Amino acid sequence: MKKPLLVAFLIAAVVGGLALTGAVPLGAAQNSSEVAGSISSDATWTKANSPYVLTGPLFVDAQVSLVIEPGATVNFNSHIIQVNGVLWARGTSADPIHFNGGKTLFTVSSGGWNEQTETGSIIEYVVFTSSKIEIQDASPKISHNAFSRGSILVAGSNPHISGGSPVISNNNIVGITGIGSGITITGNNNATVSGNVIAGWGNGVVAGNLFYATSSFPLIERNLITNNSCAVKIDLLMRDWVGNNFPVIRENTISKNSQGICVVCNWQRDGNPDEFLIPTVISNNNIQDNGGSNLIGACIVDAIYNWWGTTHASSIAQTVSANYRFTPFLTAANARAPSQQYNPNPTLTAALALSGTPTPAQTSAPTPSQPSNLFSPSQSVIPQQDGGQPTQKGGFPVGTVVAVGVAVAAVVSVAVMLRKLFPKKL
Fold it and tell me: Structural domain boundaries of the chain?
């Protein structure tokens, strides 16, 4: 082989070895971590050891914390993570956590979020892809997440307890099929749903007492609810023998849906239904530009002090069912309600696949601190690195070692051959 060709060959070998090294990053795990069963002591899931793959249902025991660090991925494989203790899944806007498939279930024994002490269960800056959350008489904080085909169910299933007070705020909750519900609130609870974009569902939000309730008033406030078949469905079951769930709906923008607010009444109490004014609050919303009706249903409900897109009472009456009182009404849009371009979480784009969902300029997001105490100031529960995890299979970076070895051998070979070819110049 001629010297120029040999030199070119040796250089190509070096480049190829270095390229192989770069294709397998140093320290990268090559296999997933398989998890199932119970977590009985504090555990931390890291980005380096992810993806975590559920091979069966996973239970976080009471008084136990599971911390999932920024950048980690959890593949549920249609399984469930049941949180009886505390789940701290707190990513960042730049390095979110990913939940794929399956469901996260918070039970009544799970640790509720305390805003003052920053303790308890929280899911923040997580991208949900076909992954659901269910909250049963619990009080986690679900904030700044992106849901693509992922929904939230809040169920107060026991009428004899006060139920939970979960906070669901500043999320993008987007369906792409126009079926199902983005957020469902039932039974006895005092959920707060605020600052979200809810789009692409059969029902954007369902609120009512499909389960027994004792006169709870969940708050639905300052959300952009758009591009749904029905923006807000109020499903009421009126009974004599138990209380009811009457949502408070205020300062939302309910626009560009097939129907705005849809009220369904199932009457199971004595007396004439016309004698009862249902104490659901619908006020100070911007309800306009919905394809069919802005407010439809047969119950007796007040819907005063809303903006309907016009100051002409006759035009408003054409989009509001006869049983609803809509005067007096706002004479201009409520500036406290979000605009049609509102997006609380623009950096997490996985949930923005639906055409027409607003995508304004990005906003900065804080970097969360690692929790030091997940339950309360009186309980010392400090998560230990990778401690107490269920059976895992962590990957050793064999590919990285091989790639580095190839690159080093190539460099040494080139040095030896060049010294033989050009002994006087080297």
Answer: 31-325
Give burial (CB, 10 Å; 0-12/13-18/19+) of 327. exposed
214-218, 268-272, 388-392: range with highest mean pLDDT: 214-218
At 248, list the tokens.
């408070």
* pLDDT tens sequence across 280-290: 789 999 999 99
CB within 8 A of 241, min separation 6: which ones?
A: none
Global pTM value? 0.77
pLDDT in tens, 343-367: 998 888 644 444 444 333 333 334 4
Supply 258's token pair: 């097939």
- Look up residue 114 and give its amino acid: N
Given the structure tokens 């049963």, which residue do they identify? 136
CA 153, chain centre distance (Å)? 11
Distance, CA of 48 to CA of 89 (rounded, Å): 15
Asked whether 290 and 254 are in contact (CB, 8 A), the reply is: yes
Burial of 273 (0-12, 13-18, 19+ CB in 10 A): middle
**Burial class of residue 275 in the structure, from the number of CB atoms within 10 Å of its CB (0-12 exposed, 13-18 middle, 19+ buried):** exposed
b/e 166-194 (16+ beta carbons within 10 angstroms → b): bbbbbbbbbbeeeeebbbbbbbbbbbbbb
Tell me the per-residue pLDDT of 103-127, one tens digit each, with 9 for 90 and over: 999 999 999 999 999 999 999 999 9
Alpha carbons 385 and 372: distance in angstroms, whole number = 12
